């Protein structure tokens, strides 16, 4: 299925901390002025050395949220279930399908989370780019200690934590050859961040990690053949009945009468529909409403 490209969605979004936010860097920095737990940094050709949110960190948090939701449904007759977290567990998709060579069989027998995010035998449908600062990110030093449960005295510390308290990070979510329920799960995760149910980074039990997510623009590319402005098509709408059966694609999740895009752009074999934040909010609401009825 990855040898073709039927539909692709690129969502530009921004994340702003609502409180202290810390994405910890691994190892120890050579810079002696940085605290014990410093915010992860990278080098950008225009911004120089800067704090940022790795796309892999955000993807992991979103996957964990989606897995919890799917385990709550736990319907093994469809995509509405999630396998165990660790790939070496016997019931994990990666372990069960480790020797399978047929890509259609691997996809069909994988859980909903693995169909979306992938596993060691299956490439995921979604990717998150690194989120870089839009403008200056304000950081400050917080102090913490570890308390002994036996003596109730300080066991370790004090230690320093560098947290972001203001500013905005921007990046992209890219979804390719996707089923519409997969988009619905990602929208649900973004809503979870905005409602405070999903925190990111270190120190969630300390009150860290609450963020606000704002979509800036969404671009949907679809094969021009059969395209209708108000119709969003999932992967099953592009392939033959035989392929639907082989891959176990959902045929019940369709979205018609969707909001008109801000504008459209012809891209040869594809047509691009562009949505501003207001129109995207309408799209997201329609997707989550449909998700609740499947």
Automatic annotation (TrEMBL):
Annotated CRISPR type III-associated protein domain residues: 20-211
Keyword Metal-binding: no
GO BP annotation list: defense response to virus
UniProt keyword annotations, A-Z: Antiviral defense
Lineage, uppermost ranks: Bacteria, Bacillati, Chloroflexota, Chloroflexia, Chloroflexales
Annotated protein name in UniProt: CRISPR type III-associated protein domain-containing protein
Keyword Isomerase (UniProt): no
Organism: Chloroflexus aurantiacus (strain ATCC 29366 / DSM 635 / J-10-fl)
């Amino acid at each position: 299925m990855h040898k073709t490209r039927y539909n692709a969605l690129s969502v530009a979004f921004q994340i702003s901390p609502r409180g202290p936010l810390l994405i910890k860097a691994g190892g120890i920095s050579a810079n002696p002025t940085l605290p014990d737990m410093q915010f992860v940094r990278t080098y950008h050709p225009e911004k120089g050395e800067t704090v940022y949110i790795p796309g892999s960190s955000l993807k992991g948090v979103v996957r964990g949220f989606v897995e919890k939701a799917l385990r709550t449904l736990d319907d093994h007759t469809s995509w509405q279930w999630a396998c165990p977290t660790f790939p070496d567990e016997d019931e994990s998709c990666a372990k069960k399908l480790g020797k399978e060579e047929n890509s259609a069989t691997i996809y069909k027998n994988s859980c909903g989370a693995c169909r979306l995010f992938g596993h060691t035998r299956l490439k995921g449908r979604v990717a998150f780019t690194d989120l870089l600062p839009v403008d200056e990110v304000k950081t400050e030093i917080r102090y913490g200690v570890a308390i002994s449960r036996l003596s109730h005295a300080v066991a370790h510390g004090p230690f320093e934590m560098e947290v972001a308290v203001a500013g905005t990070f921007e990046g992209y979510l890219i979804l390719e050859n996707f089923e519409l329920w997969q988009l619905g799960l990602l929208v649900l995760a973004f809503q979870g961040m905005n409602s405070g149910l999903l925190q990111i980074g270190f120190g969630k039990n300390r009150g860290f990690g609450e963020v606000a997510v704002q979509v800036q623009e969404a671009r949907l590319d679809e094969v021009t053949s059969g395209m209708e402005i108000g119709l969003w098509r999932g992967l099953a709408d592009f392939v033959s009945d035989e392929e639907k059966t082989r891959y176990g694609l959902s045929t019940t999740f369709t979205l018609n009468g969707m909001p008109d895009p801000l504008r459209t752009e012809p891209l040869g074999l594809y047509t691009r529909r562009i949505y501003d934040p207001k129109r995207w909010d309408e799209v997201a609401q329609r997707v989550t409403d449909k998700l609740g009825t499947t």
